[in-house]
Amino acid sequence: MAESSEVLNELYKIILDRLSSQREGSYTVKLYQRGKPYIAQKVGEEASEVIVASLAEGKERLISEIADLLYHLLVLMAVNNVKPEEVYEELKRRMKG
Ligand SMILES: N=c1c2ncn([C@@H]3O[C@H](COP(=O)(O)OP(=O)(O)OP(=O)(O)O)[C@@H](O)[C@H]3O)c2ncn1[C@@H]1O[C@H](COP(=O)(O)O)[C@@H](O)[C@H]1O
What PANTHER family does the entry give (predicted)? Predict the structure, then answer.
């Protein structure tokens, strides 16, 4: 099992693996088959669910919605060939000590 700090990288690798193997029954593959506009729409929906949970639902629900959003965001990154390291680099570049 990945260290906490490595979870997003690990999940991204699993997503890439699902996309290259086209594994049957994979939700990631189902998203991919529906196309980029659908994946982008899902990210929007999941972000809305995070907003609602943060304002009107408990912490447990909020954590679950954030996890859904992060997963869909990683799928969106994968289909657009954006690697987590590239996002980390951008965040580091902006980071003020
Ligand atoms: N982390 C996730 C993850 N988070 C959320 N989801 C799925 O995202 C969907 C969100 O629910 P929604 O109600 O919005 O969508 P839905 O009604 O199920 O489906 P839609 O038809 O609306 O797209 C659920 O089906 C969840 O199972 C995820 N599906 C997969 N993963 C991980 O991704 C990896 C690859 O999974 P597979 O591609 O399924 O093998 C594995 O490590 C999984 O654990």
Answer: HISTIDINE BIOSYNTHESIS BIFUNCTIONAL PROTEIN, HISTIDINE BIOSYNTHESIS BIFUNCTIONAL PROTEIN HIS7
Ligand 1 atom with minimal separation from the 34 CA: 23
Query: Using a 6 Å cutoff on CB, does residue 69 contact ligand 1?
Result: no
**pTM for the model:** 0.95
Domain ranges of the chain: 4-94
ipTM: 0.93
What homologous superfamily is domain 4-94 in, according to CATH? MazG-like (1.10.287.1080)
Which atom of ligand 1 lies at the shortest distance from residue 67's CA? 4
